[in-house]
Amino acid sequence: MENEDLQAIPHEPTAPQSAVASPDIHALNEKIQKESAFIDILTMEMNKVIVGQDHMVKSLLIALLSDGHILLEGVPGLAKTLAINTLSTAISVNFSRVQFTPDLLPADLIGTMIYNQKKEEFTVKKGPIFANFVLADEINRAPAKVQSALLEAMQERQITLAETTHKLPEPFLVLATQNPIEQEGTYPLPEAQVDRFMLKVVLDYPKKEEEKLIVRHNISSTGFPTPNKVINADQIIQARNVVREIYLDEKIEQYIIDIVHCTRSPKDFGLNDLEPLIEFGGSPRASISLAIASKAYAFIQRRGFVIPEDVRAVCRDVLRHRIGLSYEAEAENVSVEAIINQILNRIDVP
After folding, report:
1. Are residues 234 and 254 located together in one domain of the fold?
2. Judgement on whether residues 85 and 16 belong to the same structural domain of the protein
3. What is the pLDDT of residues 293-305, one digit of tens each?
4. Are residues 319 and 196 located together in one domain of the fold?
5. CB–CB of 91/232 below 8 Å?
6. What is the pTM of this model?
7. Cα–Cα nearest to 339, from 253, 261, 266, 257
8. Domain housing 284
9. Tens-place pLDDT, residues 11-29
10. Which residues pair with 200 in a beta bridge?
11. Rg (CA), the chain
12. CA distances in angstroms from 217 to 53, 146, 208, listed in the order given
């Protein structure tokens, strides 16, 4: 993940004091080593297709392991859709893609009831939402009714059709993309729906050397590389259960709570200058997401316990869409990332 300001932390990545005293921590570390073996294989398959964008690849894995939805934001051509397609190809799951447009209807997403004349009854025709991985491409182009239908699926993991509730398959993951530079014909996502995304990842242009490799991949006579299927849905569900077992020390819990509370009341932490810049801060869902994402990051690092660096590594992606900037902040061109950096530099690291 992002490494800004991480160098300033004097802590070594060693187990917390209480974790060392626990008789289960060593067994947990061995379990993590075994269960996380597929991470390297899955990353290698994705890197066959995706050049650079290591942060995006890691973020997709964190969302996958955390059972959380992810929103990728970036200008066209940064491999957002390609990365999601590649991830779904490398995992043996059902995948569907929905291209969001202004004329999209809720039935186009969740399905509808069709009358069967022979049987004289209504039957369910399920929509593309009934898949393990759902790519919501250009999600901000769909109107409010479609966003409302997607919101139930994201939060409740179910769909209601004609008074009947249908459970969505496990694992279920919404991977959405949006273009930040085009405003015409778009519908800004409601705050309630944005909050349902565990991570919001903002992508930047690749470096020169990376772009050179991208060009070579796309003009090669051997054809574009295709990833192999390396894991299945059961392995993902099992890995998620192991992620939940990762040890989170009480001091790390307090560190997470302090960070989120500082987004709401920065003056309580001595950041009086941030008070007029923040309209609203992170909800309790932000604290939950930060804790689970930190565990997933520790899992990727093959560690059975969470350290402060894990929290700081995922903090920006968890909080950037959960902090509302005031008009004063927009007038002064203050970014959410700058505010999060100030908060991380202010809160004492355990």
Report:
1. no
2. no
3. 999 999 999 999 9
4. no
5. yes
6. 0.86
7. 266
8. 1-22+247-350
9. 444 445 444 345 378 888 8
10. 71
11. 21
12. 15, 37, 14
